[in-house]
Amino acid sequence: MLRAIKTTAAFAAVAAIGLFTMPAAEAGGRPGPKPTIVLVHGAFADSSGFNAVAKRLLAGGYPVVSAPNPLRGLTHDATQVRALLDSISGPIVLVGHSYGGAVISTAATGNANVKALVYLAAFVPETGESAEQLAGKFPGSTVGTSLKPVPLPDGQVDLYINPAVFHPNFAGDLPARDAALYAIAQRPATGAALGEPASAPQAWHDIPSYDLISGADRIIPPAAQEFMAKRAGAKIQVVRGASHLVFVSQPDTTVAFIERAVRETAR
User: Fold this and answer.
1) Which one of 84, 183, 213, 216 has the largest count of C-beta atoms within 10 Å of its C-beta?
2) In angstroms, rounded to a whole number, what is the distance separating the alpha carbons of residues 116 and 121?
3) For the chain, what are the domain ranges?
4) What is the distance between the alpha carbons of residues 180 and 201, in angstroms, rounded to a whole number?
């Protein structure tokens, strides 16, 4: 009996974070389960940046999963996220920030459960394009002068945002004390990851996309974000004055935008 209770409790804990979803609509006509919201962080960040967004989504009854993004290489990272998506039953709304946008664009290809792609101040590459290339497509990015390289034993290099410029260049609309904490918690991306072109067909060709553009972004210029969003045929919302960490500074706006994607793609 004790073992059965423990097993049931363990299953409930897993279900609560969205790795399992409850059965679809019941016979009485009640609506089916809400989609699982999968959050994919970008470079120079980690999943903790989504805490305020995840808290609001959970309060709204959504299963939420924050995917670990290895930041080692675009193909490698997309493969890791794709494996996580394959473990989730039922509809998914897939959300990517910055480099995470490039990852979800590849990871979702061919997955019929992914009903919408939501990009937050993100790269939305076409096959053959890299994050590095797109960041420099329009003037205004400070990413090249913000990077602090750390050589690795295998000859590769890890790239960080220099903490000295993290606040003005990456998180300008956050309080300085908060930006300092995000600078400490950032995870590096390899130079190879940022320079690797997308090689697979991009999911935004077949899956409805939504793009939240940060209007004062100093990492991916707003003009670059708009170019990629329009090319993808995305539904667009511009958050004026928002930094690259728009989902941190504007969690209510971000959640409302995700919920719009849920409503408009429900089927």
Assistant:
1) 213
2) 16
3) 34-265
4) 38
Percent of the chain with pLDDT over 70: 88
Q: Bridge partners of 211?
A: 119, 236
DSSP 8-state assignment for residue 35 = P
| Residue 36 backbone phi and psi in degrees, to 5 | -75, 130
Q: Which CATH number applies to 34-265?
A: 3.40.50.1820
Least confident stretch, 7-11, 150-154, 164-168, 173-177: 7-11
Phi, psi of 257 (to 5 degrees): -70, -40
**CA-to-CA separations, 139 to 25, 124, 135, 169, 236, in angstroms, rounded:** 49, 17, 9, 14, 21
Q: Would you call 7 exposed, middle or buried from its count of C-beta atoms within 10 A (0-12, 13-18, 19+)?
A: exposed
Burial of 112 (0-12, 13-18, 19+ CB in 10 A): exposed
- Dihedral angle, C-alpha 127, 133, 139, 143, nearest 10 °: 130
Q: What is the pLDDT of residues 25-39, one digit of tens each?
A: 333 445 668 999 999
Helix axis angle, 99-107 to 74-86, nearest 10°: 60
Cα–Cα dist 192/131, whole Å: 10
CA distance 241 to 243: 7
Q: Are the C-beta atoms of 96 and 203 separated by less than 8 Å?
A: no
Determine contact, residues 192/258, Cβ cutoff 8 Å. Answer: no
Specify the residue for token string 């500074």.
249
Edge-to-edge strands of the sheet including 157-161? Answer: 147-151, 157-161, 189-190
Please give the Cα distance from 203 to 262 (Å, whole number).
17
d(CA 198, CA 147): 22
